Amino acid sequence: MMLCSSWVSVCWLLWSSVYQVAHGYTCPNYCSSRGLCLAQGLCSCPNGWSGPDCSIASCPLGATWSDQVIATDKGHNLAPCSNRGECELDTGTCKCDSGFTGAACERMTCSCNGHGSCKSMAKYALMKDPGRGTIYPYESNWDAHKIYGCVCDPGYTGLCPVGDDPLTGTLIDPNGIQRNEKQRVNCKATSGSFTLTFAGYTTDPILADDSAKTVRDKLVALPSVAAATVTFGGITLTACTAIGNDISIEFTQDFGDLPNMSGNSAGLGHSTPSTLPTLSFSTVTQGTKENLPCSRRGMCDSANGVCMCYPNYFSSDGNGAIGQRGDCGYVSGTVTACPGEIACSGKGTCRGPPTYDCICNEGFTGGDCTERLCPKGRAWFDRPTDAADTAHALVECSNAGECDRAKGECLCLAGFTGAACNRMVCPNECSGHGTCYTMEQLAKRATVNGDTMAFTYGAVPNKKETWEYDMVQGCLCSPGWEGHDCSLRSCPTGDDPMTLRQQNEVQLLVCKGNSGFFSLKFRDAVTPQLPFSVPAASLASALEALMTVGKVSITYSTDTNGVIGSPACNAAGSNTMRIEFLTNFGDLPPLRWILDGALTLTLSVDGVGGSVRGTKEDAVCSNRGICNHLTGVCRCTYGFTSSDGFGGEGDRGDCGYMEPIYLTSAAQQANAL
C-alpha cells in the first residue's frame, strides 16, 4: 500500500505512472503530471485543467454580460471570463476587457475620479436614505452584483451650487409665499442619549439633557445639513423630558421637499419603570422653496462647478441677500424681463411679472432656455424606487455619459455608445470577424445543435429580468472564428480514433405521394426543390452541396436486385430513404423539410425503426491535439495526424488519424483490448 499523507501531487504522479506502465501504454505528455491516464490513452484531468494532456488551464466562470440564450429569456449563462475577457490558457487567469474587472471579469469598473465609492446595484439600493421612502432591495436580477456605479462624495456630484429662485415665493407672487422645511422630533426620556439621521448622515449622541444650542451644533455638524435653527417647546431647557419634549428644527439653507429625519432611541432611559422612552418624528412644514442649480438664474459651468449668473443676479446668502453661497439667488435692482438677450432666448415663453421665469420649448432647458436637453435611456446604474428588483428609470444619457448642453448630445463614457449612451459596445468591434448584436437580436439567432430556435429575449414588455434586451450587446462570430470578441480562429473537429465501437448517424425518411416537390433542411441550410422522383444519387448530391453537410451515403429500400434509380416517393409510401452521415459526427439534429404538392414525409431518428443515433465524437482536434487559435491549426499529440474523416490519413485538419508508428506499437495493441 502506498501512503501519501500530504504529498498529494507527488503521490498522484507516481500512482499514475505505475498505472500506465502496468497497462502497457502512455498518454500524451504523461498528462502533464496532473491527470490520470486511462484506457485508449485518454487523460482524466483534475478540476481546473483540460486538453488531451491536461495542459490547458481553465479560467473562472461568471454570468455572461452577453450571450445567446439557451431558452426564451434565459440569458447571461455561465462562461469563462463572463464573455468580457480572454482566458490565459497557461495560467487560467482572465485578461479582462477595459471597463471590466474581477477574477471572471464579472463586474464593471468605476474610478469615480477619487471623489466617490464604486458600488454594485445591490449595495446602492440598500444605501437609500430611509427619509426618502421605502428601501427596496435589488438582488435577484442578473446585474445586481455585476453593474457598478459611482456614489459621489458630498460636493462632488458634478453639479453647481443650488439655491432658491429669488423672484418666486414673494409676497406678490400669485403662487404664494415659499417656506423652509420644518420637522419636529419628540423625545420622551429622562436619561441616556439618542442620535438623529438626516440624508444619510448620523449625529454624535445627543444627551437627554442637551440644550437646544447643543442639539443644533451636533445637527449642523453633519455634511448633509448646511444650517438650521433648533427650538424646544414651551420653557423646556432639555432635549428630552419625562412627558415628551418637542424639538423643532427649521432647515434654513437646505431648500425644497427634504427627506424625513429618523433616529435611534436605543440609548434612552426613563425614570418611570412602566414607561418606555420614545423618539417620534413628524413634518410640520414641507419645504416649498426651489433647490435649483444656480437658482435658475445662471448657467452652470459643469467643468469646475461654478455658476455664471445672468445680468443683475449674484451669489446669495440663501435668504435673498448677497452672500457666499455660490448660487445666483440675489437680485440687484428691478427685474423687468426674463433672462436672455431676447426673452427666453427665443426658445421659450416668458411668464412676465413678478417671477420673470421661462417656460422652455420642448428640447430646451435652463433659466434662459439656451441649454439643450439630451436623449434619455434606461439608466445603467440607479436604485429601485417603486418595487424590489425594479430599477433602470429613464434618464439623460442613461447615466453613462455627460450631456453637452450646447449641442444636446451625449458624451458617452468608454464602453458605451448610442444617442443616449444606451448601448454597451461590443468587445474589440468583434475583431472584424463577427457582427455586434443586442441580446434581443442574439436570441433570435440562437441555435441548438446547429438549428436556429424560435427563442426570444425581452419580447415581454417591461419585464424586469430582461430590462437590457436592447442595450447589452455581444458578438456573433462568423464561421471559422470564435471567442468573446471573435479574435480566435476555430480549429477543425473530428472523431477520436482511439474510441471504439461508435457509429455514424443514420436517419430514415419515408415519402408518400406521386407528384410534387420537397426540399430538405439540415442545420438551417436548405436544398433546392427536388422532384418526388429524385433518385438516391441525386438526393445525396443535393445534400452534400449544403455547407452544413459533409459526405453522406443514401440508399433506397426500393432499389433492389441491382436496380437503381427508383423514385424517392411513391403512392404507397413503401420506399425508405436511408441517409447515413459519413463525416458529420455526433448526435445530429433531425432533417427538416419543405413540401410543395401532395406529399407527406415521416422521419425516424435516434434508434427508432432501424435509425441510428450518432455516437462518434465531434471534438476539437479529435481530442488528440491542441488548437492553435492564432492559426486555426491543430497541434496533434505524438502518434496522431490529420484524417480524411473515414479513419485514414487526409486533409481534414483534425488529429483523427493514428500514424503507422503507433499502429504497430504495443500501446496501440493494449488500447485495442
Automatic annotation (TrEMBL):
The keyword Disulfide bond is assigned to this record: yes
Limits of the EGF-like domain: 23-55, 72-106, 334-370
Keyword vocabulary terms for this entry: Disulfide bond, EGF-like domain, Signal
Signal sequence interval, chain numbering: 1-24
PROSITE patterns: EGF_1, EGF_2, EGF_3
Ubl conjugation listed as a keyword: no
Covalent S-S links between cysteines: 27-37, 45-54, 96-105, 360-369
InterPro entries assigned to the protein according to its UniProt record, in alphabetical order: Dev_Signal_Modulators (IPR050969), EGF (IPR000742), EGF_extracell (IPR013111)
Name of this protein: Tenascin
